[in-house]
Amino acid sequence: MGDSKSDVLQGTLDLMVLKTLEAMGPLHGYGIARRIEQVSGDTLTLNQGTIYPALLRLEQRGWVKAEWGMSESNRRAKYYSLTRPGRKQIESETENWERIAATMARFLAPSN
Amino acid sequence: MKERSSERIRTAISRLFGHARGASLDRDLDEELRSHLAFATEENLRRGMSQREARMAALRSFGNLTQTREHYRQQRGMPMLEQILADLRFGFRQLRRSPGFAITAILTLALGVGANTAIFTLIDSILLRPLPFPQQDRLVTLSADGFFPKGWIRALQQNSRSFESLAAYGLNAESNITQNGNSERVFGTQVTVNFLDTLGIHPEIGAFFSKENAIKGQDNVVILSHGYWQTRFAASPSIVGQTLRVDGISRRIIGIMPEGVQFPYNDTHFVVPAAFKGGDATDPWLGYDLRGLGRLRDGVTPAAARAELLRLHPTLLTLFPWRMPDIWASDTEVTPLLDSVVGDTRPKLLLLFAAVGLVLLIACANVANLMLAKAASREREMAIRGALGASGSRIVSQLLVESVLIGICAGAAGLGLAFLSLRGLIIALPADTPRLAGVGLHWHVFLFAGIASVLTGVLFGLVPALRMASPHLQQTLRSGSLSVIGKGVNFRVSRALVVGQIALSVVVITVAGLLLHSLYGLSHVNPGFNTGHIVTAEVSLDSTACKQAGHCQNFFQDLVRTTGNLSGIQSSALASTLPMAGDENFYTYDAEGHPRESREGAKIAAGRTVSSSYFALIGVRLIRGRLLNESDQTGVSRAIVISQHMAHALWPKDDAIGKHLESVEDEPTPALFDAKKGSIVVGVVSDTHHDNLKSGFGDEVYLPLTPAREQSSMTILLRSQLPASQVAPTLRRAVAALDPSAPVTRVRTLDEVVASSVSSTRALTLLLLGFGALAVAVGAVGVYSLIAYIVNWRTREIGIRLALGASRWGILALIFRQSLLLSVAGSFIGLTAALASARLLRSFLFEVHPLDPVTFCAVPLLMLLLAVLAAWIPARRAASIDPMQALRSE
Predict the structure, then answer these.
(1) Which one of A41, B186, B674, B880 has the minimum C-beta count within 10 Å?
(2) Are the beta carbons of B754 and B527 closer than 8 angstroms?
(3) Smallest Cα–Cα separation from B90: which of B394, B366, B383, B380?
(4) Mind listing the pLDDT tens digit for each residue in B709-718?
């Protein structure tokens, strides 16, 4: 594992999944995992399997819903999509993250 | 991400479902993961990898498949629940592996839980379950020392504001019900017309009383109980509107009570209306035979209602057409209906409940000791678990699940035992126990058994679990096997548990012993009359038969004469009531030399109208003067006989013979004593315990069977060497010869009458003795198993002692001393506890001091004897140990 890659921070995966679904619409688990890897520019080490407990967690909270459907390659797959509370959750979590990121940035900025 | 509470609930629910649908969700996940890998493989193939490479790469980038599944399952289900289920499975395997332990533990506890569940069933059915009336908590009874006339009830109805509705009911009286020429004796009572409506019940069919039924002349109606309607009229609806002869009066059946109503009395089968004679000012105030039943207004407490009644009392007293004594009805109590139905059964049931509670504790201690013994052999297992990283709380919870499992098995078995023993228990209780017919297993009982068994499991599991959770890890793992004396096992806790068991058993049997001593005392009380070889029975004419003056008197005089001459019958006598039968008549009187003001109450004695042969037959001795004779029955002599106790109380210095008494019923105006009209005391006779064996001697008056005192129903007493079963048909034939329609009921010996007067004490004592025996048996098993275990554990030590020259007697003494010490300590603590609680028992005891020396000496002796018995087998084994074998065995 290269030094340039980092582990997914606890709690960030959920927001990534939600954001992916917001951008892409209904998507199956593999699609979500690939999309996160692509967006992060392959800087994250994502064991694709970890996406499934995360998806279940989001489903249990009512932020996403899951349905079995058919892919373009005619394969049965479980498709996840955002629910209305899920969209709201993205808003509030995004705000939250921006605040944390800004705070962190201030800490990390070279002191003068 | 933070969860809001609503989301937390959502998560919990979906987890719960996730748990329940485990298998199908597992398939779901597997399919999803398969499709994931297929997508990845497809993409890799497109990139030009070989089939094998593509699949491997897909798996690699997926990560650990098993771990993903495990995480997913954890997220989906309830880890706690799964852990408990795993513990349960493990617990079951543990129990199956040591069936001897499991069966002993479960049986011991099942006895405890079963006894508790059975007694709780009684408590639930008798004390706790609401009566079958709507808003029954607002129903109250109004009672005083004596009964009310119907005018008084009417006055309360008109003036009191505490009640939504106020009614009254009469005495439980047997009547002749005649249909098609056949008479049978049936219990019924008279009630005010609003009585059934006050209860809040509705007729099964037909109607209840209307207001008009309270007027004399329109009161010839009757309402039957559901049970009587079913047994006697096969539940035929066409019975409504037909007529029935009740005590010679034709009454129209207007309705049937709903099922389950056993009120006012357990055996009330019909009710008739209490009616007022129109235009008669004194009629409402005659006949003191009613008790009040009220439905309180919303928010009014029984105490508030009572206060109001007492406030009204002086004003309402003036409504009587004559001056009533001030104290009359001034002691009126307002009691919640359920309390007055239950009566004095409550303390008895609670006493039994306390006793079985102690039995359960003893059983718990026993099983805790078994667990401890077993724990010793599992010490290494627990140490290894600890070494592998199981936390203390994890081990405690696993052990607790095991013990709760035993508790639940025992609870199920105990519930079965309770169910099986319930019938026997109902038979053991005296027949007059209230609400006995409604005793059954309701959901409360199942809830109780469930809670009791889980609590029991926690109770006996906690001590061993806590001890096991903190083993000295390294020590245990290091020590290979047994050393000289088993180390690591400390018998201190076990000893304390056994001492506790003995102490609790001592408490239970001390209580049982005190009651037994009371019962023994009661059975040796001389009632003051002969009870052997006397058969009694009630013979009843229609109550209207006496309207024809002299008819009843002639009938009974003929009856006593003819029965006295029958073969096998030595003598025959009549009495209005039997002593100790619980239905005394009161003789309210004024006595010569005891003037009173009209506001004072008159004197009261037990009055018994008897034939002249009564005294000789029952063995009441003449002390002064003469007995009643045949000629007194004309009424001319105005003769009466009184008891010695009464003579002494009334005229301590003078001779009672020739003194006058006058019944207040014969006084033209109350408290106006007229010696010329009063009865004359002609004799003084020996005292009897006429009320019950517990009460002291009271005032008794014997009255001759004069025309003025004739009555439709009397008790006949026959002295005969023949058994009751042979006397009864002879008597029935004799009665039928005089009047074929007169029923003969309640045939029993006088011995039975006296015995049944102490039946409730006897039942309580027997049940307590049974539970005491159970407690002692379980306690003794506890002592035995501990001693046996200690002997087993010390085999090597004893072997060494013997090898070094200790005598076998010395070893025997060693073991017995262990057992006796436990017993002495337990008895001491138990007796101290019994001493402290004995005062609570005072009301249950008869002529036995709560600190009765007999009981308090017998109990510890019994416990010492048991200690010797329990140690017998282990001690003999210890003494017969072969030193060579004991030392060789590792």
Answers:
(1) A41
(2) yes
(3) B394
(4) 888 889 999 9
Q: How many CB pairs lie under 8 A apart between chains A and B?
A: 81
Q: For chain B, how far is it from start to end, CA to CA, in angstroms?
A: 61
Q: What is the DSSP string of B697-739?
A: ---EEEEE--GGG--SEEEEEEEESS-HHHHHHHHHHHHHHH-
How far, in Å, are B203, B258, B259, B336, B353 from residue B200 at the CA level? 10, 11, 13, 15, 33
The reply to whether B414 and B364 lie within a common domain is yes
Spell out the CATH class of A12-108.
Answer: mainly alpha
Query: How far A6 CA sits from the closest chain B CA (Å)?
Result: 15
What DSSP character marks residue A36?
Answer: H
Predicted pLDDT at B486: 44
Distance CA B293, CA B433 (A): 21
Q: Do B36 and A48 touch (CB under 8 A)?
A: yes
pLDDT of residue B120: 94
Rounded-to-integer distance, Cα A45 and Cα B281, Å = 107
Q: Give me the residues of chain B with pLDDT under 50, please.
A: 480-488
Strand partners, A64: A82
Answer whether the bond into residue B264 is a cis peptide, omega within 30°: yes
Same domain, B806 and B833: yes
Residue B71 domain boundaries: 2-77
B198 and B292 housed in the same domain: yes
pLDDT of amino acid B114:
92
Main-chain phi, psi angles of B320, to 5 degrees: -60, 145
* Domain termination residue (choose one: B77, B97, B115): B77
Please tell me whether residue A110 adopts helix, strand or coil conformation.
coil
Q: How far apart are CA B154 and CA B302, in angstroms?
A: 19
Model confidence at A3, in pLDDT bands (50, 70, 90)?
very low
Give the count of domains, chain B.
4
Global ipTM: 0.87
| Contact at CB, B1 and A49, closer than 8 angstroms | no
The pTM (predicted TM-score) of the whole model is 0.75
Q: Which of B14, B62, B74 is the closest to A47 by Cβ? A: B62
- Give tens-digit pLDDT for B23-81: 777 788 888 888 898 988 988 898 888 999 999 988 888 888 887 887 787 777 666 67
B149, B294: one domain? yes
